[in-house]
Amino acid sequence: MARTLIVTDSAADLDPEVAERNDIKVVELDVRLGEIGPEVTRTWSPEQFWHECANKSVLPETSAPSPGAFVSAYLEGLADGHDGVVCITLSSKLSATYQAAAAGAAEVQDRIPVQVVDSQSVTMGEGILALSAAESARAGLGVSEIAAAAEEGAHDVRVYGSLDTLENLRKGGRIGNAQAIFGSLLAIKPVIEVRGGLIEAESRQRTRIRSLKYLAEKVKAAGALEQLAVVHGAAEDVDSLVDMLSGCFPREAIQLGHIGPVIGTHAGAGSIAVCFKVKRQ
Predict the structure, then answer these.
(1) What pLDDT score does 140 carry?
(2) Which CATH architecture has domain 4-49+59-154?
(3) pLDDT tens digit string along 39-48?
């Protein structure tokens, strides 16, 4: 039986225990906070990251992993007895991570087959695809089958988020058409969507609670779901959103997690998002 390793990157915001339990290897992006380098920030929990950000006047910065970091992950899989790798990365339109993963795959092609999939998503949108791929790997599917399913599944993944501020996205240059809502942000809570691999403006809500209700309505309107995750960046009202969603998806099945340093760098504190995969009819 084929034994395929699933690799993803830290922008997927997978809880380390969840990743380990599902035999998913995570390659870290670099995060820098002022004078604090990635060798320190990668040891932080999401809670510590948000605590440190609150006490710094500078915004964090991110950079993609090197191809060598992916080579190491692929070869570790080979050493552990895997005979193939599927690597799922964050959107290639937002980061050079996909290109680094593909370059790493080319370096090891004579030793282990690797297929790299662009999730066209971020945070648990990417994470959901990695978890689905891990399930397929446990079922014994091979590299080509898992990669094809992940590429197809990317079309069924949705990510919507409510932000407290657009400052992080603006300074990071990853805001797409959301730039259009800058003019009237006073008392506005912007809602963004990951669309076509880019972060786009979705709507403007007058209050925080209305923005959360709006996210819940987007989930309810999507119909039957395979998976649903709620992730947040030190948002104290995350339970309120989960309560709103429990009527359309079993509360115990909702994956609740943190927006980590990579996506948090651009989303900012207080951000909250729903990430889900629509069930095909």
Answers:
(1) 94
(2) 3-Layer(aba) Sandwich (3.40)
(3) 999 999 888 9
**Delimiting residues of CATH 3.30.1180.10 domain(s) in the chain:** 156-278
Angle between helices 238-245 and 208-221 (to 10 degrees): 30
> Do 152 and 114 contact (CB within 8 A), yes or no?
no
156-278: CATH number: 3.30.1180.10
How many alpha carbons fall within 13 Å on the CB side of residue 14? 30
What DSSP state is assigned to residue 206?
Answer: S
Delimiting residues of CATH 3.40.50.10170 domain(s) in the chain: 4-49+59-154
Q: Work out the number of other CB atoms within 10 angstroms of the CB of residue 43.
A: 8
SS3 23: coil
User: What are the structure tokens assigned to 192, written together?
Assistant: 């963004």
Q: Are 6 and 137 in contact (CB under 8 A)?
A: yes
Residue 141 phi/psi, 5-degree rounding, is -70, 155
pTM: 0.91
Of 186, 187, 165, give the one whose Cα is nearest residue 178.
Answer: 165
State whether residue 268 is helix, strand or coil.
Answer: coil
Q: Is the CB of residue 269 less than 8 Å from the CB of residue 162?
A: no
Per-residue pLDDT tens digits for 246-265: 888 999 999 999 999 999 88
Per-residue model confidence as pLDDT tens digits over 112-162: 999 999 999 999 999 999 999 999 999 999 999 999 999 999 999 999 999
Contact assessment for residue 74 and residue 85, using Cβ atoms and an 8 Å cutoff: yes
